[in-house]
Structures are given as structure tokens and as C-alpha cells.
Design goal:
Strand order of the largest sheet: 3-2-1-4-5
Largest sheet: 5 strands, parallel
Strand content: 5-15%
Number of strands: 5
Helix content: 40-55%
Number of domains: 2
Low-confidence stretches: none
Order of helices and strands: EHHEHHEHHHEHEH
Distance between the termini: 13 Å
Radius of gyration: 16 Å
Number of helices: 9
Oligomer: single chain
Length: 174
Amino acid sequence: MVKSNKKFLIDANTLMAAARLYYAYDLLPSFWDIFGEKIKEGNVVLLDMVKNEIDKGQDELQKWVMERQDDFICCNHVDPEIIPKYAEVMQYIHECGFYNEKGLDSWAKNDVADPWLIATAVSKGYTLITFEQSAGPLNSKNKSGKVKIPDVANYFGVEVHNLYYMMRQLGIKI
């Protein structure tokens, strides 16, 4: 069994895609049982804003997370250690020249977890787990309207992987 010392910070899309696309509860309940056990080992971190996004779904995923919320390492985004990093993330996307107003505005909304995920990963040394993909080569002459987690995280030196990487690191086999 693989045992990782890494702490994995999970983006909402990772859990939502797993629940709704790849590992439906009625087809692969073993994934959720094994994942639930791995969470108890203390390697999986859930940001409060991600939990809020999941809670909006009021579905099986929301119930599953609620039943295990005490097993996750929970992280509050307004932690004094995280707030300055959040400011750095926002300053970077405003000053780097790669994003147009639409992109900048999308990450400036109070309920958007993405910049907080990066700030949390930077300040706590977490590996970020998301299914979001890079926008590809960024260019200041053709500014993007979509700010993507992997692109910004890369600038800050945050390790970003998908669910399958985390599953391998934690030894999750179904």
C-alpha cells in the first residue's frame, strides 16, 4: 500500500465529477467507502468554501461530505496565514497581463474558491487536486477570459494534479 505524507487540498470539481460522472454512488460505492477511510488518515483537506459549493448541491455528495466532515482536515479560508497569500494571488492575476476583465472579474467574486485554494496551498504546502486544465500558453497580446487554477498555481509553485494522482498516492484501488 502506498502511503503519502502529502496533504491534498481538493477542488469542488474533483468531488463533483467523481460523484456525478466517474464513480456514481449506485455503481461504485466501494470508491466512496475506501475514499472515506483514506480521509480518516489525515491527508485530505477540504476548504470551507469548497464545502459551501458542495452544500449547494443538496445531493448524495453533499450528504456524503456532511457525514464525514469531521474526518476531513477542514481549513477556513480566512485563516490569517492565508489572507496575505490570497492578496498575492489576486495581485498576480491583475498584474501579469494574461487576463481580460471577464477573467479578472470572475475570480474577484466573493464566493469563488479558486484563488483561495491556491492561497491555501501556497501557505500550507498542500498539493492541489482538481480536474481543471491549463488554458495553454498564455499571451499578453491575446488576453484570456478564463483564469485557470493550474496556470496561476504554477506561477506560485503549487503542485497541481488530478484525482487519479491522489488515488495512487493514497493507495485507493477499487
